[in-house]
Structure formats: structure tokens, C-alpha cells
Amino acid sequence: MLFKSFNMEVIPVKEMLRQIPPVHEIQRNSDIIAIQERLDLTREKIKHWIQLEIDDVRHLILANKLQITRAGDLEQYIINQVKKKCIEWGEDNLKPAINATGTILHTNLGRARLSEEAIDHVVKVAKHYSNLEYNVTKGHRGSRHQIVEEIIKEVTGAEGALVVNNNAASVYLTLRALAKDHEVIVSRGELVEIGGSFRVSSIMSESDANLVEVGTTNKTHEYDYLNAISEQTAMILKVHTSNFKVVGFTEQIKTKKLASIADQNDLIYYEDLGSGALIDFKDQGVGDEPVVKDVLEAGAHLVSFSGDKLLGGPQVGIIAGKKELIDRLKQHQLARVLRVDKMTLAALETTLKSYAKGTQAALYQIPAVRDILRSASEIKEQVQAFMKKSHLYTMFSFDIRNSYATIGGGTMPEEQIESIGVTVQCEVLSPEKLENRLRNHRTPVIGRFLDEQLFLDFRTLDSSDIEQLHQTFSELNQELKVM
């Protein structure tokens, strides 16, 4: 906005309206022409934005919310607004961010990062035509289900597998295809709500399966399931409560026993695992998440889990289990509605191959797995290397602090992992204003507050993140020096 200066008369409203320049005059401005060429925009798009800004200016003037004192100021104001609109439009809405929160699978920041190998595979497949639905060997139409099914079977021990666009879709498809208009027995303690207010009970209702709740919030016994079975029962569903814990006076029936009950009553036993661990993190002293392969070996007919949580791949829902059941899911019309694209399959295939290789080096190629398992001493080395250059940023002071990171993504809610980072203070900005400045940087830096100071946790940073962090502080240092 342009405001009245001291000892200067504001131009009257009617005169300001007369001073609004025509669209073609703004289009001829050298700054507008330069930004149009830089962003490769058409004259029609620029013209449209100019018209919108002129309309806004007219409304502001009539509402007495825009005051100018000199001829020419109004035209410059419109030019500046159009330039701002062009710059904002030219920026990507979806852009990289630095996750310095210490939450490894941060849902708001995109959960798992892909490995370099997965990214390379995505780029290669996106850049060229591919055999997505073409059987090269036989020379006729193929199925995209085959792209990753064998590798999923290899790493889970399942007879068959299917990939859909997320794990909520896995649950919905499974219930719709295998239990529509029939009863599904679920323990009351497992009727969870996940992010965004999505509830298992609501998904079940949408699938037209009939929910039968058994037991109580903290205790469900074998006889609860047995007493609930009727001629209308099609399935027993166990939902892994990965985003919360019920402790104390509790009891749950284990997979092996539920699978046995289902087998004896000719029912489907389906277990929704949510996070989808393909390795045993317990062996590394982290959490108690069930391993997909172990659940299938214990007798589950079907399991489903996410691809972008503990698995460390792209957002998908994976359904694995008995071949006969997987084939029924593949043939359902919803399988096409919920299918994933070629780039997602490329990222998933490469991620799964890292598990199939089985070596620590291969697993550490997956950023989520690496960030969960790497030692505090390794992170400390990164922090110390960062501190060696921190003296260059004279407007800031940094202190090394020990802390605890979390897994995130609705996974292992009680688990805290030893971590290290730095608190940041600025000579001219409060912690809150510094946090805002970093968060609104060209590449946003998202940290957290620790003892009322801004804290950057290095467990969730890789070498490229730290390099960007140096660049960000260097730029901010220069900006703040001239304030």
C-alpha cells in the first residue's frame, strides 16, 4: 500500500481513478517485459494479471484504502503488484524443505524420503516409455501388478501381493471385495483413528462391511471372538495400533490364535499392520513393531501396510497374503480405481530391492531406515563439522545440545532415539521471529523449540540438507547485517 506522507496532500479519489494507467501501458513496462520473458509467460496471461491488479486498485481507491501523493506512484504500485504475482506464480507450491524437527517420518513434511537409487529409477522411467503394462517377452499386453509382486513376495514370504495408492485404500478394497454385506469382527481397542480424522469404523462403513465390535478398550479375550461368529461373519480383522499405546491392565489375542480361530470357522483373517516393518527394528533396540513376514508366518491370510512409513518408500498401500485372496482383489473393479502410477512403482521396486539384498549397506541406502538406526556418534560428527563453519555467521550463535528424536508417521509413539543438534540464537531476532524467518526462507527450514530456543535436530538431516543449511545461514547473515 502507498500511504500519505507528512506535509503532502493526498490526491483526491476521482483524480486517482483517472490516473489508473491502461493495461497496454503496464505491459510495455521494461520490468514487466523482463519477468514475462524470464518465466516464459504469454502476453495474454500477463494481460489477465494486470487487469486483475487494476480492478483491485480501483476497489481499494473507492474504499479509501489506497492513498497516494505523487503522480506516477499509482502506476509503480500496480507494476510492483504484478511483478509480485508473477514471482509467486513462478515458485513451486510443492518444494523441498529442511526437516530439522527430529521427527523422521514427519507426515506434514512428506514422511519418508526416497533413496538416491529410487529417485534415479523414477527419473529414468518418467523420462522414457516403459513396459508398465506390456509383456516384452510375449509381445502382448501385460499387467502393472506384476512389476513389484515378485519382489514383495520375496521380502514378505507372501503367496501374492497387490499395490494400491495408500493403506487406507488397502483396508477399503479388502473389506469391500471380501466382506461386503457381511460381518467383520474387530476388537474395540483397535478401532483407531489415524491422521485427518480417518477412522477404521468409517472406512468399514463406506465399504458396506458390517462392523461387529468385541471386547473392551483394554481387554479382548478369545471367547469374545468365538461368541461373535455367526453365519454372516466373513472376516476377523486385527488393526495394529501403531499410533498409540494402551498400557497397564490389558490383553489382546495374538495373531497365531486369531488365525487359528479363523481357519476353524472358515473365515478370512486379515491384519492391518499400518507402518509395515520389513526388518526387525527390535533387534536394533528400537520399538516393538511387528514384522510383516512374521505376521504372515504366524498364520494371517492377508496383511496390509504403508509404503512411506517404516518401509521408507513412496506412498502406497501394500496388500500381501494368500494367492487366492489376492487374485480376488486384483479382479475387483476398485483395483483399477486405486492403482498406482509408473513412477510410484519404480520407487517402490528399487526400495524393496534394498531389503531383498539384505546387507546393512543396502538397507542404509533407504533414508528412513538409516535415520532410525544410525548411531548418535555419527550424528555428533555431522554437528561438529557444521560448528566448524558456524563462526562465519556472525549474527548467529550456535550451541550443541543433546536431545531425543522420534519416529513419527503414527509409528512407535513412545519410542525416543538419542539425538544431537544445535540451538540457534540471533542478535536481532527473537527465537519466534527467527523460526518464522527460517520457515519462510526460499528453502524452508523447519525446526522445533527446546527450552524456549530454536533447535535444529541433525538426526533428520543428510549431507545435502546441511550444505543447504550453511547457504541459508549465509544468506540470512548478510540480510540481517544491513537491517
The CATH class assignment of the largest domain is Alpha Beta
Terminal residue distance: 21 Å
CATH topology of the largest domain: Aspartate Aminotransferase, domain 2
How many individual helices? 20
Percent helix range: 40-55%
Strand content: 15-25%
User: Would you count the extended β strands for me?
Assistant: 18
CA gyration radius, whole angstroms: 29 Å
Residue runs with pLDDT of under 50 for 5 or more positions: 1-7
What is the residue-mean pLDDT, rounded to a whole number? 92
Major beta sheet summary: 7 strands, mixed
Strand arrangement across the biggest beta sheet: 5-13-12-11-10-6-9
CATH architecture of the largest domain: 3-Layer(aba) Sandwich
Number of domains: 3
Sum up the overall morphology in one term: globular
What is the fourth-level CATH superfamily of the largest domain?
Type I PLP-dependent aspartate aminotransferase-like (Major domain)
Class from secondary-structure proportions: alpha/beta
